[in-house]
């Protein structure tokens, strides 16, 4: 009887070691291949299909050298690696399929970058390049043929539309600013008298001045006050 009990116990133990209990192969995120691993983190590339490059026949990720920007996870860390900021202009290089208005569409030069957050985009220049990564080349008023009729007063507009019409996009958006006004970020202004754009767009007079005359910040009818004084009808 004792020998029968030992034999029965051994058979039960061996029965629990069958192939049916072998855990399925796991993917990058610890999920079996083909299963739904849930939502990926913002900006994370999709996991590669089972059996694709970087995976064995069971769908398990096999680490290899990471290649930036190809939207594949070669080193099995669950994400693609950024291609970085080669030109050091503060904007990450674009990867295949990225929205070019939100990444550096030419990471080889600081003359090209889109506006990102508080960082302004590169100024559009007449250089045959898409400096601000908006998909257009040399569309600024200084470059485009549509604004040639303004002569030396091209600052009345800021760009040509896709139809070639010269406009101040921050003003009416349909035509240049009136004669004597400049197209600035706030619209059409007279830089000879505008205290927020005195002499040129964006030149703001300080508290040492109370007006702008002939493109110069003034306190009353005289020059600005010294830095330790505020203009209040005079210095």
**What is the strand tally?**
6
Tally of DSSP helical segments: 1
Characterize the overall form: elongated
How far apart, in Å, are the first and last alpha carbons? Answer: 115 Å
Please state the average pLDDT score: 79
Q: Which series of helices and strands comes N to C? A: HEEEEEE
The order of strands across the largest sheet is 1-2
State the helicity in percent bands: under 10%
Query: Which consecutive residue ranges, at least 5 long each, have pLDDT under 50?
Result: 4-18, 22-41, 43-53
Percent of residues in β-strands: 5-15%
Instruction: Give the class from helix and strand content and strand pairing.
Output: little secondary structure
C-alpha Rg (nearest Å): 33 Å
Kindly describe this structure.
With 235 residues, the protein is mostly loops. Among the domains are: 64-138, no CATH class; 145-218, no CATH class. 6% of the residues lie in helices and 7% in strands. It is built from one helix and six strands, in the order H-E-E-E-E-E-E. The chain has a two-stranded antiparallel sheet with strand order 1-2. Strands 3-4 form a two-stranded antiparallel ribbon. A hairpin with a 5-residue loop joins strand 1 (159-160) and strand 2. It is elongated. The model is unreliable at 4-18, 22-41 and 43-53 (pLDDT under 50).
């Amino acid at each position: 009887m004792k020998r029968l009990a030992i034999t029965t116990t051994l058979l039960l133990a061996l029965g629990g070691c069958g192939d049916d209990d072998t855990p399925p192969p796991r993917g990058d995120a610890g999920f079996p291949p083909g299963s739904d691993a849930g939502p990926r983190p913002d900006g994370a590339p999709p996991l590669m299909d089972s059996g694709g490059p970087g995976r064995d026949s069971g769908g398990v990720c096999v680490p290899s050298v990471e290649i930036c920007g190809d939207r594949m996870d070669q080193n099995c860390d669950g994400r693609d690696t950024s291609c970085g900021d080669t030109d050091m202009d503060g904007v990450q290089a674009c990867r295949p399929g990225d929205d070019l208005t939100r990444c550096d569409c030419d990471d080889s030069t600081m003359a090209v970058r889109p506006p990102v957050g508080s960082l302004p985009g590169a100024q559009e220049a007449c250089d045959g390049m898409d400096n601000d990564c908006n998909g257009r080349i040399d569309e600024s008023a200084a470059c485009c043929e549509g604004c040639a009729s303004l002569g030396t007063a091209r600052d009345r507009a800021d760009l040509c539309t896709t139809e070639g019409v010269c406009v101040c996009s921050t003003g009416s958006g349909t035509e240049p600013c009136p004669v004597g006004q400049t197209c600035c970020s706030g619209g059409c202004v007279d830089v000879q008298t505008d205290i927020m754009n005195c002499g040129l767009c964006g030149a703001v007079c300080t508290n040492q001045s109370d007006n702008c005359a002939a493109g110069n910040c003034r306190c009353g009818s005289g020059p600005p006050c010294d830095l330790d004084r505020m203009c209040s009808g005079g210095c």
